[in-house]
């Protein structure tokens, strides 16, 4: 069969052409999420890369055909309110049925394409491998497909997929064994301080049984990651020895890995503490100095294949141009990470609210947190119960829940993929409500 003959048939079919033209007319004032042919071909290319990387065995024509047809029913949704998956399945079936016998897809191939169209917006537990593939390869209108390398994929292919996807505003990452869709979701990192002197909950979870009970509560309430800290980093804190910090954190991490199926983070800036935590099973290193305090840290993370959260920090809040200097500081963290060959899909960035900043700077960096997306990595926002909320509302640490929730929602609206909080249940409810509003209907992003 001549190359691309099936695809040319689809692209030139009168029904496909008329539907695509009508869809483009309906979206002519749309700022983003436009269904131009280059978008459909981008979906096809990255879906096919994913197919090859996972060795799924689907033919190029099959993948490209599904990608070209996946949103063909969108204009019917706009005009008649028909779900575009249902409309698209029927329209695609008509186009495929009219393909000449000498180039036609087999009945099984047609079934697979229609299954992909019907299921690409909803992931079901009973989905077959093709439906699962297409759900991940064809995510949502207006964004290129989001290819996901295997956790152990290496070299140029992994980098190629990650960079391509992030350049198109979408990406997945693994932390431990858990997959995180950092474009479509905001995840919760629950704080588990096993310290006697943390500013908010110091002393409450020093005992390992108390720590496990609190971890169980946070997981039940919806925590996606548990962040274990053994030394307070509040302003004016007293630094403890590495041995003491390891004694507080490593046994807890080991038990958490035995008891719970969520990624575990170690909140430390010390290489020896991170090493002990990684040996105990930690999946992520949350470094409040962004790899700048301990020269061993970056290599440890790379050697263990761990993920990392790199936070902005300075010893003193002295800047010539706060935002420009802030971005330069973050680029320096990334330079250290890349010199150590930490993979792009192992990196999260944190603006460091409450660290090396004045009250006004803390408010400014929360307001400008979306600027960090220029750096090309997922963002974690950590404001929970911090002084910027206390000073704004004139409240003690235990009464800052509403202020924290406000920043969580603001972070969601500005592209933050993670929030680090004490009150998991309340913030999870706020995230769910915000998601429901934002995702009620994708057609709301049509600009009239």
| Fraction of helical residues | 40-55%
Q: Cα distance, first to last residue? A: 45 Å
The strands making up the biggest β-sheet line up spatially as 8-7-6-5-4-3-10-9
Which shape, going by the Cα principal axes?
A: elongated
Mean pLDDT: 83
Low-confidence stretches: 122-133, 135-170, 441-448
Number of helices: 18
Largest sheet: 8 strands, parallel
Rg, Cα atoms, Å: 24 Å
Q: What is the percentage of strand-forming residues? A: 5-15%
| Total DSSP E strands | 10
Class by alpha and beta content: alpha/beta
Order of helices and strands: HHHHHHHHHEEEHEHEHEHEHEHEHHEH
Provide a descriptive summary of the structure in words.
By secondary structure, this protein is an alpha/beta fold. It has 18 helices and ten strands. The chain has an eight-stranded parallel beta sheet. The chain has a two-stranded antiparallel sheet with strand order 1-2. A hairpin with a 2-residue loop joins strand 1 (172-175) and strand 2. It is elongated, with a radius of gyration of 24 Å. The two termini are 45 Å apart. The relative contact order is 0.09.
Would you kindly provide a brief summary of this structure?
By secondary structure, the protein is of the alpha/beta class. It contains 18 helices and ten strands.
Blueprint of the fold:
Layout: H1 5-12, H2 14-26, H3 37-53, H4 60-69, H5 74-80, H6 84-97, H7 107-119, H8 129-137, H9 155-167, E1 172-175, E2 178-181, E3 187-193, H10 208-221, E4 225-229, H11 242-259, E5 264-267, H12 271-280, E6 284-287, H13 297-304, E7 307-311, H14 322-339, E8 347-350, H15 359-367, E9 380-381, H16 387-393, H17 401-413, E10 418-421, H18 424-439
Parallel strand pairs: 3-4, 3-10, 4-5, 5-6, 6-7, 7-8, 9-10
Antiparallel strand pairs: 1-2
Helix pairs in contact: 1-4, 3-4, 3-8, 4-7, 5-6, 6-7, 7-8, 10-11, 11-12, 12-13, 17-18
């Amino acid at each position: 069969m001549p190359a691309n003959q099936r695809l040319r048939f689809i692209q030139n079919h009168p029904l496909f052409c008329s539907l695509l033209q009508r869809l483009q007319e309906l979206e002519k004032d749309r700022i983003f999420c436009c269904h131009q042919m280059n978008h459909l071909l981008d979906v096809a290319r990255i879906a096919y890369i994913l197919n090859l990387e996972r060795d799924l065995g689907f033919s190029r024509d099959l993948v490209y055909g599904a990608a070209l047809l996946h949103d063909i029913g969108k204009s019917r949704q706009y005009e008649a309110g028909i779900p575009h998956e249902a409309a698209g399945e029927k329209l695609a079936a008509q186009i495929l049925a009219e393909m000449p016998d000498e180039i036609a897809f087999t009945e099984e191939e047609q079934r697979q394409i229609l299954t992909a169209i019907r299921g690409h917006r909803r992931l079901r537990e009973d989905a077959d491998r093709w439906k699962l593939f297409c759900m991940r390869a064809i995510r949502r209108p207006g964004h290129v497909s989001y290819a996901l390398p295997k956790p152990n994929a290496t070299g140029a292919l992994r980098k190629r997929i990650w960079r391509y996807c992030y350049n198109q505003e979408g990406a997945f990452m693994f932390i431990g064994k858990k997959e995180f869709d950092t474009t479509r979701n905001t995840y919760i990192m629950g704080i588990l301080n096993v310290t006697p002197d943390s500013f908010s909950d110091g002393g409450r979870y020093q005992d390992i049984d108390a720590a496990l009970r609190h971890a169980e509560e946070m997981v039940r309430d919806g925590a996606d990651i548990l962040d274990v800290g053994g030394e307070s980093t509040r302003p004016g804190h007293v630094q403890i020895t590495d041995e003491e910090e390891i004694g507080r954190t490593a046994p807890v991490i080991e038990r958490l890995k035995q008891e719970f199926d969520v990624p575990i983070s170690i909140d430390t800036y010390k290489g020896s503490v991170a090493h002990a935590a990684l040996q105990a099973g930690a999946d992520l290193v949350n470094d409040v100095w962004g790899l700048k305090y301990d020269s061993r840290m970056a290599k440890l993370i790379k050697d263990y294949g761990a993920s990392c959260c790199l936070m902005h920090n300075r010893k003193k809040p002295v800047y010539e141009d706060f935002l420009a200097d802030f971005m330069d500081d973050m680029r320096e963290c990334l330079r250290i990470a890349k010199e150590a060959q930490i993979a792009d899909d192992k990196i999260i960035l944190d603006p460091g609210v409450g660290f090396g900043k004045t009250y006004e700077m803390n408010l400014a960096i929360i307001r400008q947190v979306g600027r960090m997306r220029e750096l090309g990595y997922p963002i974690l926002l950590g404001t929970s119960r911090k002084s910027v909320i206390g000073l704004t509302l004139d409240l003690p640490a235990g009464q800052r829940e509403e202020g924290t929730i406000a920043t969580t929602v603001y972070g969601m609206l500005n592209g933050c993929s993670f929030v680090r909080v004490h009150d998991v249940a309340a913030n999870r409810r706020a995230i769910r409500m915000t998601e429901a509003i934002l995702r009620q209907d994708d057609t709301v992003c049509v600009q009239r």
